[in-house]
Design a protein that fits this description.
By secondary structure, the chain is α/β, with parallel strands linked by helices. It contains 6 helices and 13 strands.
Length: about 280
């Protein structure tokens, strides 16, 4: 069975790349995904008008969707609302911010909110994971032959060479928990650049995957999104970059779902656009 995932992130309505955002709708539909995963930062400043635009856009994507908020999906400049009711607007316009779930033949997908409106540290925009909530996610039968996918906004492990870091409180512990339950893919956003690396402490053939941005806030790579095609023995990841008139592959990875003992588990830095990777 082949599973097809469209992975979009960091659209930042209010600062979106409008032609790319519109074109992504038809590109995703043509891909015919099993699931569309959107890993946060739907808005730029968490304003109602931005959320209305985000909700309208989401409604035009294929209906099998897993959506989780990012740090920008709070009232970014309203410190009182951001501290006291950070995700009320997200809940009103998008849906449940804390967890989301999707099940299909051959696929079990779960998300957990890694964003916070305020934290006891200077950079409140960094991530945080509630380990008890993570452990409480239902992954179905332990030995079921399914692709297990987890999504949140912030990368759980900071990526060497990335322009920004997730700085996730308890991120390393979260990665261990996900490895223990056999999660195959961890999908995230936040850094605005696509990446792939093996999940630390996990069995071979399991990966952390980051998508780029569909906003004007690019960091050295074109606006874009990623597609993931998982067959029984391989996972093909393609980062699609916006050219101004359409999307073209800017980075590809061909990944084994199972590795032989002793295979090279070298992690990948943020990739060079146009350079193919075969792990």
């Amino acid at each position: 069975m082949t599973i097809r995932i469209a992975h979009l992130s960091d659209i930042h309505f209010g600062g979106e790349n409008a032609p790319a955002v519109e074109a992504a709708l038809s590109a995703v539909a043509a891909f015919e995904p099993t699931l569309v995963t959107v890993t946060g930062d739907l808005t730029l400043n968490g304003l109602p008008a931005e959320f209305r635009a985000a909700a309208a856009w989401l409604s035009r994507l294929p209906p099998a969707r897993l959506v989780t908020p990012g740090n920008h999906d709070t009232p970014y400049w309203n410190l009182i609302l951001r501290a006291l009711t950070p995700f009320d607007r997200y809940r009103r316009y998008i849906g449940q911010p804390d967890v989301d779930a999707f099940d299909a033949p051959g696929l079990v997908a779960r998300s957990l909110n890694s964003a916070r409106g305020a934290q006891p540290r200077l950079d409140w925009s960094k991530g945080s994971i509630a380990i008890d909530r993570l452990r409480g996610l239902n992954w179905g039968a332990p030995d079921a032959p399914v692709l297990k996918l987890f999504a949140c906004h912030h990368p759980l492990i900071d990526i060497e060479g990335a322009p920004v870091t997730g700085g996730v409180h308890r991120g390393a512990r979260a990665a261990v928990v996900l490895a223990e339950v056999g999660v195959d893919l961890i999908l995230t956003g936040h850094v605005h650049n696509a990446f792939v690396l093996p999940i630390p402490n996990a069995a071979p053939g399991r990966y952390a995957i980051g998508a780029g941005t569909l906003s004007l806030r690019t960091r050295g790579t074109p606006a874009g999104f990623s597609t993931i095609v998982a067959s029984e023995d391989r996972i093909e990841v393609t980062a699609l970059g916006w050219t101004g008139s359409g999307f073209e592959p800017s980075q590809t990875w061909s990944l084994p779902r199972q590795r032989a003992p002793g295979a090279n588990l070298e992690t990948l830095a943020v990739p060079v656009p146009g350079q193919a990777q075969d792990l």
